[in-house]
Amino acid sequence: MPESIPASLIIDTLKDTFREARAALAAEVAEPPQHAHLGWILSVPDTHQKTVLAALDKEEAIRVVTCATEDEATAVAAGLHMGGEPVVLMIQHAGLYASINTLRGVAMDGKVPMFYMIGLLSREKDRDPRESRHSMVRYCEPLLDTFGVPHARLEGPDDVHLIPEYYRLSRARRGPAAVLVGLETA
Amino acid sequence: MAMKPEEVLRVIAAARGSAIVVPTMTTAPAWRTIAPDDLSVTCVGFMGGASSMGLGLALARPDRRVVVLDGDGSLLMQLGSLATSAGAGARNFVHLLFKNGVYHTSGAQHIPGGLTVDFAMMARAAGYRVTCAIRDLDEFRGRFPELLKAEGPVFAELHTGLAEQTPMTARGGVPFHEQVETLRARLLRPRAAA
Ligand SMILES: Cc1ncc(C[n+]2csc(CCOP(=O)(O)OP(=O)(O)O)c2C)c(N)n1
Ligand SMILES: [Mg+2]
Which pTM value belongs to this model? Predict the structure, then answer.
């Protein structure tokens, strides 16, 4: 498993994902929103993705809203979706546990496409996350399975294609989909 | 005397123009009879999320006002959202708090602190640009049009009594996912339907 993944690679992939989402919306609706930015990151800071968050501070094309809780981030994402805006939630596993009722009530019951990038802080390189010594890491995939949320592991630069894929999947299934970030961004 | 929530809602319905409205809890059943349109979306099933969902709409559509009809117990459940909403700085965001001192929908148990909690002061401290508390219907009727136009984020604590109906006594309404789809279609106009 690689040591890290460059923040710039993630940000470029996010920009492409947002561009594709806007193009898809423009084909689908008569009045897509007109904004200078490409899309939104809703974040309660995740330790694994902190270099991405730091680099996003300088990115005018992506707007970042830092929320006090992941519940808020999920509900804000629903509002942005209704207004036609592309959104990515950037949180950590503890935040998934903290906001699971909102994932259920908003993304599942509301059939709202919701793409999550979830940092797996403390994921050990030498063992499968499901066998982790840390409960925060160990329960993440089983919890997503319980709720029927599709997920994939982003564990190196070769995996960034999962970002647009799972973003699209969340649109196609009109519900949540998650990429689990298993290593630090650099 | 506390204002009747239904009367407050009638004033809002008459003045809101093209504003998107986000009701929750006991404002929901009354709102769907008073304003049975498709420019509203109810927060149902994720207590405390009305203002955040409204914030997302406000950020997406700066061309429209977004009016949130929040519950006091609901706001307490996600109190940090005051800082999030204020910090996001949406100029078109109007947050109305129906302060009845209780969790009416779940059986009218007192909220922590009851009526002593000063939500307007909390909103001001969190950074809302305009905050006020309104106790009287004539005052609300006079001030709402100006609150609706003000440079937000705007917060008003409305001292209201108990609604006639709650989501428990008046069940039904359009399922949440249909409301989401309808509002989205209304805002974006899908080509197939256009
Ligand atoms: C997470 C969660 N905990 C508890 C409940 C139960 N519950 C349903 S309605 C309600 C009270 C809502 O009170 P408030 O926001 O003040 O609105 P009101 O009914 O007074 O208009 C509660 C506690 C819930 N729906 N969700
Ligand atoms: Mg109440």
Answer: 0.98
Kindly report the CATH class assigned to A7-27+36-159+166-181: alpha beta
Residue B68 pairs in a beta bridge with: B22, B95
What count of CB pairs under 8 Å joins A to B?
134
Question: What is the Cα–Cα distance from A12 to B152, expressed in whole angstroms?
Answer: 33
- How many other C-beta atoms lie within 10 A of the C-beta of residue A67? 30
- Domain total of chain B: 1
For residue A66, what are its two tokens? 């830092």
Tokens of B161: 């009594």
Q: Indicate whether B178 belongs to any domain.
A: no
Mutation choice for B interface testing from A18, A65, A72, A101 by most B CBs within 10 A = A72
By residue range, what is the domain housing residue B79? 5-164
Distance A162 CA to ligand 1 centre (A): 38
**Collapsed DSSP state (helix, strand, coil) of residue B129:** coil
The token pair that represents B169 in the structure block: 């006594």
What the block records as the tokens of B83 is 């800082």
- A123-126 long-range contacts, Cβ below 8 Å, gap at least 24? A123/A182, A123/A183, A125/A1, A125/A183
Distances (CA, A) of A123 to A48, A82, A94, A185, B8: 10, 35, 13, 13, 52
Sheet strand arrangement including A39-43: A62-66, A39-43, A87-92, A114-119, A176-181, A151-154
Return the residue whose CA atom lies nearest to atom 21 of ligand 1. Answer: B26
Structure tokens at B11: 């004033």
Q: Which chain A residues are closer than 8 Å to B183 by Cβ?
A: 82
Model confidence pLDDT, tens digit, residues B121-167: 999 999 999 999 999 999 999 999 999 999 999 999 999 999 999 99
Of A29, A69, A73, the CB nearest to B189: A29
Find the CATH number of the domain harbouring B112: 3.40.50.970
Interface predicted TM-score (ipTM) over 0.95: yes
